[in-house]
Design a protein that fits this description.
- This protein is α/β, with parallel strands linked by helices and about 525 residues long.
- The chain contains 17 helices and 20 strands.
- Strands 4-2-7-8-9-10-11 form a seven-stranded mixed beta sheet, sandwiched between helices. Strands 13-16-17-18-19-20 form a six-stranded parallel beta sheet. Strands 3-6-5 form a three-stranded antiparallel beta sheet, with no helix packed on it.
- Helix 1 crosses helix 7 and helix 11 runs parallel beside helix 12.
- The chain is globular.
- About 0% of the residues have low confidence.
């Protein structure tokens, strides 16, 4: 069954509202292993469905690795299955749509992995809207291979429409935010050591089939500072369970989020969680509660040192949603990163409004070779009225020029095709061309131009659905940043915007000369 926008049930959580937050910590103890009926846990990252022109990036699923590490701390037996890395070279067209391709293990292969492990419970990652059909395939594979197993899911997509998974696919529990604690507590509930009603950020069926809902967001946090006075709010979370990933296969494939790498063995790392900006196209603000939580620089260096020792990494990518949100913390972190003597970059983007020359100098000195500035628009009106990004364009060009002057490669993120919202007129074609001209004049070495895409969990989707700017029968797998899904009568059609973005990418990036790396991608794969 192909999931479409009109197949979504009622919106459970409004992405425009900051949720009620309860700061939590790990339980002091857990059930005895010998007395557990639920002990074997399988965590699955689904295959990836992408537009045929997209590069299938392949990086280890950090979220599942964190959950696995916590569960192993409490002596649960855990296995991680990443369907993309295990079947990276297996691809098939989406039925009825030759423009989209699914990469990764098929249902039968997934079933074989599940059957070999025979889990008591399976957790399936459901982060992205365009992977919803792939998640359904994983559910079907579980039913085939382990019909007795409990099925759970979580992630950004699952957070906003959890009832679909429960009603349509018989999922036993949906986790509504980060899941290191509530997944563990749910296991303990199944083992008779917890009350379901006491678990936060969850919708689940109890033993009698009654649905228990607790949308209150539970976020891990210890209100601690290190000896130098910097926040260490997440240091009590164990490092991801790397031994459960097929690390060598990730290195061999080499399709990292930033494809133009210096190293061959590239690690991914989070130094913080959350972002305080409220960009309307993004799901991050609500999913992390609009709060920023930081790891101490010493904790980050410890993780990198272990990755270097165990896996001989020769580069790392910082995956934070906003690495420079806390400017002083970031400066101290970058200063400490000099010890690692490793190249690194920021493929997720950085907050230019939280940067200055000193910070950029520290990035360069600590090994950063490429910085990605998430500008989004070269038109201040679009930023202020439609995207709601706290960025002053008048202060950006100097920092871009400065970063280039000290030898950093500078990449830009841009979004075009924002519809009318909040009483403000939609972005015009002329304004989209103005964004391209801004990127060109600012001197970016390369740029990614995306179409505004109303992904599940964004304010943009809520506004597009309310105003009828997105067709109700739009398949969720088409929620790619290269598809023109938003149509504004009298202003423009989505197809126009997709073609314009593709032209921008080709024209801007075809002139880019890359250093001699392991692999070259085409200009339309940004």
């Amino acid at each position: 069954m192909v999931a479409t926008i009109n197949s979504l049930d009622r919106l459970f959580i409004d992405p425009a509202e900051i949720p009620k937050i309860n700061y939590i910590n790990f339980p002091q103890g857990a059930s005895r292993v010998s007395e557990r009926k639920i002990q074997r846990v399988m965590l699955i990252s689904p295959p990836a469905t992408l537009f045929k022109g997209d590069l299938p990036r392949c990086t280890y699923p950090l979220g599942l690795g964190y959950i696995a590490a916590v569960l192993e701390r409490y002596e649960y037996e855990v296995k991680i299955l990443d369907c993309l890395v295990e079947g990276y070279y297996s691809k098939r067209e989406v039925e009825g749509d030759e423009n989209f391709i699914t990469y990764g293990l098929d249902r039968e292969s997934i079933s074989a992995h599940i059957s070999a492990f025979q889990p008591d419970i399976v957790g399936v990652s459901s982060i992205f809207s365009n992977q919803s059909d792939a998640v359904q395939e994983v559910f079907a594979a579980i039913r085939m291979a382990a019909p007795q197993a409990l099925i759970t899911t979580g992630g950004a997509h699952a957070r906003y429409f959890p009832h679909n998974y429960i009603a349509d696919f018989g999922v036993d529990a949906v986790f509504l935010s980060e899941s290191e604690v509530n997944f563990l507590e749910y296991l303990e509930y199944q083992n008779g050591n917890y009350e379901l009603e006491s678990i936060g950020s969850i919708i689940a069926k109890d033993s009698g089939g009654r649905l228990v809902e607790n949308p209150e967001m539970g976020l891990l946090r210890e209100k601690e500072r290190n000896a130098n006075g910097f926040w260490a709010e997440l240091d009590h979370i164990p490092f991801p369970a790397w031994h459960l990933y097929n690390m060598e296969e990730y290195f061999r494939i080499g399709a990292y989020q930033s494809p133009y790498t210096i190293g061959n063995r590239v690690a991914q790392i989070y130094t913080s969680r959350g972002c305080t900006a409220k960009c309307t196209f993004c799901t991050t603000t609500n999913f992390w509660g609009g709060k920023l939580r930081r790891r101490s620089p010493e904790n980050v260096l410890s993780e990198l040192s272990q990755l270097q020792e165990k896996y001989s990494i020769d580069e790392f990518h910082i995956q934070d949603d906003n690495i420079t949100n806390d400017k002083q913390h970031a400066k101290y972190l970058f200063d400490q990163l000099r010890e690692m003597n490793l190249p690194w970059c920021t493929p997720q983007g950085t907050a230019l409004w939280r940067m200055d020359e000193e910070l950029i100098d520290l990035m360069k000195a600590s090994g950063c070779y490429q910085i990605t500035f998430a500008i989004e628009s070269g038109v201040q009106r679009v930023l202020n009225d439609l995207i709601k990004k706290p960025l002053d364009l008048a202060k950006t060009t100097h920092l871009i020029t400065y970063a280039k002057s000290i030898g950093l490669s500078v990449h830009g993120f841009f979004i075009i095709g924002m519809p009318p919202m909040f009483g403000a007129p939609g972005e015009t074609i002329d304004e989209m061309y103005a964004t391209y001209q801004y990127a060109d004049a600012a001197g970016f070495d390369s740029a990614s131009f995306f179409t505004a895409t109303p992904i599940v969990g964004s304010v943009l989707l809520s506004e597009c659905m309310r105003q009828g700017f997105v067709a109700s029968d739009t398949p969720l797998y088409r929620m790619s940043y290269k598809q023109g899904l938003v149509n504004v009568p009298g202003l423009w059609q989505g197809g126009e915007i997709a073609e314009l973005a593709a032209n921008f990418n080709r024209e801007f990036n075809s002139r880019v000369k890359r250093p001699d790396r392991r692999r070259e991608w085409t200009a339309n794969q940004y």
